[in-house]
Amino acid sequence: MNNPWLDIPLSDYESHMAMSSIAQAGMIAAEFEALVRCHKPDSVAVIGCAGGNGFDRVTPEMRRVVGVDINPAFIAAALSRYGGRIAGLELYVADIQEAPPPCAPVELIYAALVFEYVAPPAALANLARICRPGGRLCALLQLPVAGLEEISPSPYESLHALAPIMRLVEPSELIRYATHAGFVLESETRVSLASGKACVLQQYIKPSCSYSRGRRASFRPDEITVDFVEENDYDGYHLSQYLQRNGVIMEYNPVGWFEIYVQDMARATAFYETIFQWQMTPMGNPDPEGFPGMEMCSFPSSMTAYGASGALVKMPNTPSGGSTLVYFSCEDCAVILARVITNGGTVVSDKMSIGEHGFIAIFSDTEGNVIGLHSQN
Questions:
Q1: Exposure letters 354-365 (e unless 16+ CB within 10 A, then b)
Q2: Which residues contact 141 (CB under 8 A, 6 or more apart)?
Q3: Edge-to-edge strand order for the sheet containing 281-283?
Q4: Which residue in 46, 83, 85, 90 sits closest to 64, CA to CA?
Q5: Against a cut of 0.90, is the pTM above it?
Q6: Taking the chain, what is the end-to-end CA distance rounded to the nearest angstrom?
Q7: Exposed end of the chain (fewer CB within 10 Å): N or C?
Q8: Which of 226, 240, 245 shows the shortest CA–CA distance to 304?
Q9: What is the Cα Rg of the chain in Å?
């Protein structure tokens, strides 16, 4: 079924949202401005940005502003309006319940009146992939109000097509799905409109490690136990301080580094740079006397990102092709496998489903190492 958002003219949508009986456009922009002033992020993503609602509230400190919308005409209008005004503007046509936009992670994600039109579990999983560890997801949900229609009456008939796909999401339901995606509820605030309608603004944080209350930490997002953080109880603490103050035991991922042994460093480096589209970095020999002739080339890494990094290692008299299986995360295993074949590697196991956990595949690189792939798509 064609998504009705694709057929709505931007002029109809903006005029509808600006009606005095609705007044949601101004509220959405005002909440965005308040969040920006409070958290001072250096990068933001506005999901469902339409023609750039709230972009005029962007501060000079923001290095990147990402706009995402399913409607190409909306994105074209945002580009026309703000392309020359916001230096770090990135715009993407994307359906967030199908795949994350192809952008680098951001510090704050703003999704206002979005989850009513998408599948929350899939959308949240994709948004988690573009949120930095320690970053925030701010979701604005419409609340049911007795005597008021979910979609306000409007002279703009194109908006009527949204009724079949519009569904109010219970705040507790979004908390459950967001927790499963790796977010932690930080605060929840009711927002009332002059029209009589009401919304709730939920702010989530994406921790840089897994945790639980009253027990040792779990490493799977769907095993995280979260206690609700009462409004004003956060008290200005960094999340880790808040959690430790409340008896939460912090633990980190068990794998901190990996090494893949190779016979030909140039060949292996070219292989991994090509199939993953990465830039690898040569490393010096940390102990020339103890390991004469050793060469190392590191994979991309970040001290604030999830997971472990590692390096290719060439060492005299050390064979490659060992028994340890390392899994690399990627957007789509099938895309990587296609590059493997054309760059001298071999496919050991084609892409296969592992149920709710996504997909895996296995290949052998140019040095005989067997490597795993994992993707959600």
A1: eeeeebbbbbbb
A2: 113, 115, 116, 168, 169, 171, 174, 199, 200, 202
A3: 257-261, 309-314, 295-298, 281-283
A4: 90
A5: no
A6: 21
A7: N
A8: 240
A9: 24
Q: Cα separation of 187 and 230, whole Å?
A: 7
Predicted pLDDT at 234: 35
pLDDT band at 344, cuts 50/70/90? very high
Q: What is the pLDDT of residues 129-185, one digit of tens each?
A: 999 988 999 999 998 877 766 666 778 888 888 888 889 999 999 998 998 888 999
By DSSP bridging, strand 281-283 and strand 295-298 are: antiparallel
pLDDT for residue 32 is more than 60 = yes
Strand partners, 68: 47, 92
Tokens of 282: 């040569």
| 3-state DSSP helix/strand/coil % of the chain, to nearest 5 | 30, 25, 45
* Closest alpha carbon to 374 in 348, 336, 339: 336
Starting from the edge strand earliest in sequence, which strands make up the sheet with 43-47, in order? 89-93, 64-69, 43-47, 106-112, 131-143, 198-205, 184-192
Q: Indicate if the pLDDT at residue 232 is higher than 70.
A: no
How far is Cα of residue 325 from the mean position of the Cα atoms in its chain? 26
User: Average pLDDT of the chain?
Assistant: 81
pLDDT in tens, 105-118: 999 999 999 999 99
CA distance 308 to 310: 7
The two three-digit tokens of residue 71, written as one number: 């409607």
